[in-house]
TrEMBL record:
Its biological purpose: In the presence of manganese, represses expression of mntH and mntS. Up-regulates expression of mntP.
GO annotations of cellular component type: cytoplasm
Organism in which the protein naturally occurs: Halomonas sp. RT37
Pfam (any one): Fe_dep_repress
Subunit annotation: Homodimer.
Stated name of the protein: Transcriptional regulator MntR
Signal peptide segment: none
Length: 148
């Protein structure tokens, strides 16, 4: 009866409010996931080459330049980047803080997966998705596990 893997029993015990909260959190994470990926990549490009250009972002993400242009407008509207003509894209302080937080979450999740015995390459790829959906409470538990 108390088997945590008994999915039928778990599903029947979840309240409608819990379902709503879970789906709301997942939708919120999906909305911010692309923004976090973009600012983290822009940060990496700036660190590596001194600037981030739209063409570099498109190539790294495997998307078309118009897709990148649309997202850059959104990032600009949200105060996360500054576009400088003929000089590329730069992060605002708000953008840098978001990139740093996203990178830290990624590193914690990746280290946690590796500690569990996951191949480092697989852990890197899996962490890319998990990092956006992990709660602060779960992330703190991962950190405690890594220190223990």
């Amino acid at each position: 009866m108390n088997d945590p893997l008994n999915h039928d029993e778990r599903a029947s015990l979840i309240s409608p409010e819990s379902h709503v909260e879970g789906f709301r959190k997942a939708r919120d994470a999906r909305r911010t996931e692309l923004i976090e990926d973009y600012v983290e990549l822009i940060s990496d490009l700036i660190t590596d080459g001194g600037e981030a250009r739209q063409t570099d972002i498109a190539r790294r993400l495997g998307v078309a330049q118009p897709t990148v242009a649309k997202m850059l407008k959104r990032l600009d509207d949200e105060g996360l980047i500054i576009k400088r003509p003929y000089r590329g894209i730069f992060l605002t302080d708000k953008g840098k803080a978001l990139a740093d937080a996203s990178r830290e979450r990624h590193q914690i999740v990746e280290a946690f997966l590796i500690k569990l015995g996951i191949n480092p390459e697989t852990a890197r790829v899996d962490a890319e998705g998990i990092e956006h959906h992990v709660s602060a409470e779960t992330l703190a538990a991962f950190e405690r596990f890594l220190k223990g």
